[in-house]
Every structure is written in structure tokens, then in C-alpha cells.
Amino acid sequence: MPHPTAVVAEDERVLRDELVIHLGELWPELEIVGVAGDGIDALELAGKLRPDVLFLDIQMPGLTGIEVARQLYAKLHIVFVTAFDEHAVAAFEQGAIDYLLKPYELGRLSLAIARVRARLADPPRNALVEVLGELERLRQSRNYLKWIRASAGREIRLILADDIVFFQADTKYTTVATVDGDAIVRMSLKQLMSQLDPDLFVLIHRSTIVNVKFVHGVRRGLDGSTLLGLKGRPEMLSVSEANRHLFRMM
Fold first, then answer.
1. Residue 81 pairs with which residues in a beta bridge?
2. What confidence score (pLDDT) does residue 182 get?
3. Any idea which of 5-14, 78-87, 213-222 has the lowest mean pLDDT?
4. Model confidence over 157-174: pLDDT tens digits?
């Protein structure tokens, strides 16, 4: 009997690598045939490789996990990966859909694996379609950060999140860059990413988050690096190799 196969779709490379490692430890028979960093890649890989299981992040650039699932739910078994809180988990449980909460817990991963393994011989559950609408409503209703308090010299500024061009962190502070100038916040990028709208703000480097509506072009550096040009700012922001795929269509 052939080994079961899976694709892992998660836009955060560290979490994606971590999930692949844990799957190898807890389900050694499972063959990871592909990994994806955005929804478009996830859809293409699942169509091309036809895995038995798709571990699918809900919040991804390109296409959300919900949009991907709408096209694939009848073709494979899906385990959603989510940062949603306990109120949203009820939507998964009600539809008997497998899920993982970030950050990953090995106990919860083991349970999801056991459920998927028990169902592999059966067709994918149509119950998933009943849950997708509720998940989309929950995703859209999340209260993302609208304003941020930042210091500029002795002044405390209230900056509209939509007006922020990028965030850039150093060892002690995080710079908030707008078209009108810079300010400082005492928040880590990890804290900021959990509060920002993922449809607007993208982590392009371990030290930089950019508002995609301010990106006006992509340039290749002399060393082969990827650089972003910005509306209203002179900087060219460097994109890490792991995140270059986010801008390949520009």
C-alpha cells in the first residue's frame, strides 16, 4: 500500500519548517511532496501533486486558505492551520474539521493526525463546505489595528494604520515609517503582525513589515537580491529569499 502524501501550505517559513519536522516525527509514513508559501502555490501544488492531505494556513497572501479550500474540499482531506481564538474553534468542531492552532502544540497535532489517518480510506467530507462560510465571516470580522501610538521626539502621534508605509525593527525599537516621516514604537514585529491586517501588511524580512498598497515596483539588486520601491519614500526595502515569491507577479 503506498504511503499517504501531503502538501504543507504556510506563509511563515519558520512555522512551515517546524510543522514539516513535527509531521516527520509523529507520522513518519507520511510523505511531504510539496510546500507552499501562498494560496496560489497551494492551489497549484494540490492540483498537480494530488496529495491525500493538505495542511492549509487560513491567512495567506495571494489566496486565503478558505478560498483554496472552496476549490479543493472534495478532492483531499484538509487540516486547517489557524491563529483564530477559541471562539472560532467551535466552527471547526461543529463541522468535524481538523485544525491546528498557532503556535503548534504537539498534542493537538497528534490528535489531528489520528483523525486524518482514520479517515484516509473515506472520501473527503462535504461537511467542510458548511464551515467555510462561517470561517470567512470570522476572518473578516477580526478587529485589526486601526491606529498606533508612536513617539516622534517628545511628541506622541496617533498614526492611522492605513498610512503606515513600513515597520522596521532594530535591537531596541521599531520604526514606523509614513510618507510624512518616522516615529518609534516599543513593540516587536511579532506583536505587530498579530494585530495587523494580513491582507495589507506583509513580513518581507525578519526586520521589516511593509504595507503592500505602498509598493510601486520591484527591482533586482546587483547581488541578485530583491528590492521594493515605495510610494512616497526614498528607501528600497530588501526582501528575504523566503519571501520573494510574494512579489514575483509584480
1. 57, 100
2. 95
3. 78-87
4. 889 999 999 999 987 789
pTM exceeding 0.85: no
Cell 479550500 -> residue = 69
The cell numbers describing 127, all together, are: 461537511
Task: Convert the pLDDT of each residue in 71-87 to its tens digit.
Answer: 887 888 888 887 665 54
CATH of 5-141, one of 3.40.50.300, 3.30.470.10, 3.40.50.1970, 3.40.50.2300: 3.40.50.2300
Residue intervals in the chain for CATH 2.40.50.1020: 147-247
Phi, psi of 174 (to 5 degrees): -120, 125
Within the chain, all domains assigned CATH 3.40.50.2300 are found at 5-141
Average pLDDT over residues 122-130: 67
For residue 145, give the nearest of 172, 173, 167 by alpha carbon: 167
Got the DSSP string for the chain?
-PPPEEEEE-SSHHHHHHHHHHHHHH-TT-EEEEEESSHHHHHHHHHHH--SEEEEESS-SSS-HHHHHHHHTTTSEEEEEE---HHHHHHHHHTT-EEEESSP-HHHHHHHHHHHHHHTTSPPPTHHHHHHHHHHHHHHH-----EEEEEETTEEEEEEGGGEEEEEE-SS-EEEEETTEEEEES--HHHHHTTS-TTTEEEEETTEEEEGGGEEEEEE-TTS-EEEEETT---EEEE-GGGGGGGTT-
- Going 29 to 30 to 33 to 34, the CA torsion angle's sign is negative
Q: Which class is 147-247 in CATH?
A: mainly beta
What pairs with residue 205 in β-bridges?
A: 208
Q: What is the rounded CA–CA span in Å between residue 80 and residue 109? A: 11
